[in-house]
Amino acid sequence: MIAAFSIAGAPDDSGSYAVGVAEAVRIVRDSGLPYETNSMFTNIEGEWDEVMAVIGRCVDAMTAVNPRVSLVVKCDIRPGHTGQIEHKAARVQALLDED
């Protein structure tokens, strides 16, 4: 499965969420699961329990320094398929390349 998630605590004085987001991305990176980060979400791929455990660790880290945390999660659950972070984007790009 692929989970796209966005997590944010309180912004810093400039209005940036970067410090908290960087900590969440460190947790995802250190999990060893395939992932990618863009300007709005981090996508992570693996089995349900391992993906949700990583997201849970991100929430724990964020709530340790923020009294309130916002979390958005969207999942693409497709048993028996792996490598979909790359493959889904490649399929779309191949169609665009036909233009």
UniProtKB/TrEMBL annotation:
Pfam families: Thiamine_BP. InterPro entries: MTH1187/YkoF-like, Thiamine_BP, UPF0045_domain. Residues 5-93 form the Thiamine-binding protein domain. GO terms for cellular component: cytosol. Belongs to the UPF0045 family. This is Thiamine-binding protein. It comes from Phycicoccus avicenniae.
